[in-house]
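::Amino acid chain::
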Amino acid sequence: MLGVDPKLVLVIELGASVDPGEFRRAGLRLLDASNKRVTVAFADDPQLAGFVERLDACASGVPAGQRTEPYAGFVDAIDSVRPLGPEDRISADLAAAVANAGLNEMLRIDVELWHPDSHDLALQWTDELRRAVVEAGGRVADVHVSDRAGVVLARIYAPADRISAIAELDTIASLDLLPTPALSIPQFWAATPEDLPTMYSPGAETPIVGLVDSGVASAHPLVGPAILAAESLSPAIADGEDRCGHGTMVAGLILHGPVDQALARSVSLRPFCRIVSVAVLDHTNAFPDDDLWERDLVEAIEWCAGQGATVINLSLGDARRPFRSPRQSPAAALIDELARRLKLVIVVAAGNIPVLDYLLDVDDQALVTYPTDLLRDADSGVLDPASASLVLTVGGMTTAAAATGYSGHETLLRRPMGKPGWPSPITRRGPGVGGAVKPELVERSGTLGVESGRLVDSDPELGVISTQLANGRLLGHLVGTSMAAPLITRVAAAVKARHPTFGANLVRALVLLSAEPSSEFETSLVGASPAARAAAVRNLCGFGRPGIAQAIESTSHRAVLVAEAAIPIDGVHIYELPVPSSFMRSGGMRGIDIALAYDPRTRKSRLDYLSNRLEFFLIRGIPLTRIIEVMTSVEGDEDIEFETDVDTAELTSPESRAPSTLSELRSHVVKLRPATQIRSAGTNQLGRTEFRTRLDPDRHSPMFVAVRDVNRWDDDTAMQSYGLAVAVWCSSEQGDVYSELEAKLEAVVEVEVEVRLDL
């Protein structure tokens, strides 16, 4: 029997872990399993009675003539057996949403019903669900029954306070929360200027962002007030007005972030940056045929910098030139020279790849296996100029859990590719030049839908919503890394707005430091080694997804320390890092994140594209004088792969003999992820470590961050500028890290790391 009778479904609570195979070998049909709980279905009442008999036999003790209780190996771990209840059907996310819901708040929910192995009965169960939802004051948006797959699904909208009542239906297997579109259907499709919130013009002191794209629609009410200038430098493009809509969408995301979310807040909009725009793309969203596009790009960036722009957004690329190691591509080399010479933060989209270029079959399996195919494709590298070394390259991720929310009729047949937090199927992969992490960062770019074996890219819920001015509409949607890049540009602009004196290197470092790892995607990767999983995440998601709050300020449980400096070629800088007392107490998590960005000279004609390499180490439990002695003994490009696989909680005591060689120093270097060799391949670096147990003051202090320059072909008298940012954090049950470090360093806001030595 393939169907399920809800009355024959039981939940078994376990006191110890049991191999799920034990239940299968006992003839039970396993529906779900976790570490301490399994859900099983019985074929009929006799099988259920037989299982109960086993439990009774075990409870009766050892029968005469037998050595053990019957079925003891199977039953001993069982604490209780009970029917599946309403609380089992409601997911943790839905339960949390119900607990925090406002009065009469409607929730969007996907419902899975048991399939009874009878089409007519399945339809009867969906009718029962429909009546229960309507009685609760909700509605059913769609129902789908597949007898072949044994699946019965429904999408419903229901009041939060009535979810528990709906969950009483024993035909329901599970209810799970879906995100509700931020805007209503009329708000998205038919918004008028009167429907939009007031937008204030940014202040005269706000940073200027250069937008090099298709121009901007200066009449758009959510864009126009922030435009300082809009020009075209090419005779093939009449003026700076946007004739294809792309640049206007990018501008809206720079100014407001995800525009649908900004509008849903129903408050006045106050951008913290201004925009100067150069149109380099024509009405077809392409560079003019008669123009040398690299020259157009260079002139546009120089013009923006001349207007005062300190951050530049490039949501464009050459689809003919996916990066192929080892040599840098032409436009990327030009962009690197501009970033260094003009001291700019340049943010570049990784580029888009047509899904059918790497995916042979569009089927249900492809919904979750596409990342493997994308990584294997030889032509899926980032597009020129996204391989540039001195820029922040941005890949795309999906945030979509459902589709058709902006449609008059929702359908369960359309399913998003990937899951929230996964790389988008249209994004491109790294690594970059010399094995550098590329893209370094990811943001929402939308995803594609799959419906009846075909790809769908026209669904607003799957795309990114922003400003447009076309066909009388003020809002539009698009899928692509072009939409991800301006969201990172916005983070960089926020850092400049909050800290206007910070240079480009430090701004890049703070954006990197704010990145949250793509844990949702990494945990989904199975069947590969840890190293292979980590490489897959880096090549598609970089260091993760940054955020404004993390980039611009400290909190009570996360203190950010910063430094800007210039290091001599082949020199070493050492900073003392004060260790909070909360790190020495039991309980909770704590950690240290370190980001570094620098702007070396570059040469496309050299295989060693970067003139020098910077690398950093976190060193503990050894005197400063000894660190200086050991690190300055290293000559030239001698490799220092300090970080080993030693657990940071079990490092050697400093009471042991002081190190006299580099190999001995390794036991005092805290392991950061990714390792030095990986992160130091690029100019944008981030290393993280977590401590799961308390630290020993005698073993883990003092702590130092050492920055080392390794020359490749630069002038021996040169100085290399860099920005360094360190976050010291702990979980909420620990003490106030910020206040303690503030007192130690006698500073008011973000503070420079205390000690720096030029060697």
